[in-house]
Specification:
By secondary structure, the chain is α+β, with helices and mostly antiparallel strands. The protein is 34% helix and 21% strand. It has one domain (3-325).
Length: 326
């Protein structure tokens, strides 16, 4: 389903916001028209930022690794199946990340590819082959690595220790697998060619670059391996952790199976869906809350009645906004 509209981002609407009151909203076309003629004090979101953020909003009909590991499984399904309204503020984190990614594309090292999309097929029980894709931020050739850049809006979202968050590890491992089994791919520039065969790459590193407010922090996927030292003693050393195909499939197939079941059954809830990663907790599409869901906001928290609300005609909305500004 398409994004139906966006909450009015004006200062007037923000000042009027209070519990129990539904905000004004506009279709994307209405909002862009409004913003194109607005004064600088109309909103913290000028026309250019709104237009660029909407350009980055992707309505996909395929399953991606981000869909499988990022956020809430219920929310991802609802996003595909129901019309809904968003606030521009909800798009900020993703848009901020995209701005950084575009800058990094221009600085990528020779022999690397940024923001390509790779597709492969994975066999799912009772569903057959299912296409799944990934779009790694960067794939480098020397050394052979998958790199993911994260630009959190809060430094507290950056791991304090020497290991990435678990969903970031899953994403890197899944991406590596899809690249090595790629059946097709799409590049940012149509005239570009891959400088290497993705199926032949032997990966040496998988790592995340967390872009904090004070600087970057690089964290690699690593594992401890027991080794024997020269003096005969034993101890542990850390080495790059790159899962085998079997290890990846043990994690990927259950997630993909649950997502395929959920998408096919919605709005019904398959009785066994709760056993699949991303759909844990009490059955039903409504957010199960803590401890299963730790997210502050997702579409499942708004399901079923808070996805869309009525709005008066555009002329009336504009008149009300003008009166409130006076």
């Amino acid at each position: 389903m398409p994004l139906l509209g966006l909450v009015d981002p004006s200062h007037t609407e923000r000042k009027a916001d209070e519990p129990g009151r539904v905000p004004r909203w506009y279709t994307t076309e209405e909002l862009l028209l409004q913003a194109s003629e607005a004064s600088p004090k109309w909103s913290p979101w000028p026309y250019e930022l709104i237009n660029a953020a909407l350009d980055e909003w992707q309505e996909r009909d395929y399953i991606s690794t981000t869909m499988l590991v990022g956020g809430c499984g219920r929310s991802k399904v609802i996003e595909r199946k129901e019309p809904f309204i968003l606030a521009l503020d909800d798009l900020w984190a993703a848009f901020r990340g995209t701005m950084i990614h575009r800058t990094l594309e221009h600085g990528a090292r020779q022999g690397s590819i940024a923001e390509a999309r790779f597709f492969t097929s994975v066999r799912v029980p009772k569903a057959g082959k299912v296409e799944v894709s990934c779009s790694p931020d960067l794939v480098t050739q020397r050394p052979v690595a998958v790199v993911d850049y994260k630009a959190p809006t809060d430094d507290r979202s950056i791991p304090m220790y020497g290991y990435p968050w678990r969903n970031h590890v899953d994403q890197l491992q899944f991406n590596r697998y899809i690249i090595n089994h790629a059946e097709k791919w799409e590049l940012q520039e149509e005239h570009m060619d891959l400088p290497w065969n993705p199926r032949d790459l032997v990966f040496e590193h998988l790592y995340v670059v967390y872009l904090g407010s004070r600087g970057p922090k690089v964290i690699e996927c690593q594992k401890s391996v027991e080794v024997v030292f020269k003096n005969g003693g034993k101890g542990n050393r850390k080495y790059p952790d790159i899962w085998s195909d079997i290890q990846v499939e043990d994690e990927l197939v259950p997630r993909l199976t649950g997502m395929v079941k959920a998408l096919a059954a919605y709005p019904e809830w398959p009785k066994d869906l709760g056993k699949y990663p991303g759909f844990e907790g009490p059955p039903g599409w409504k957010c199960p809350g803590r401890p299963w869901c730790m997210l502050p906001i997702c579409l499942a928290k708004r399901w079923p009645d808070g996805l869309v609300w009525e709005q008066p005609p555009l002329r009336q909305r504009k008149q009300e906004a003008e009166e409130e500004e006076e």
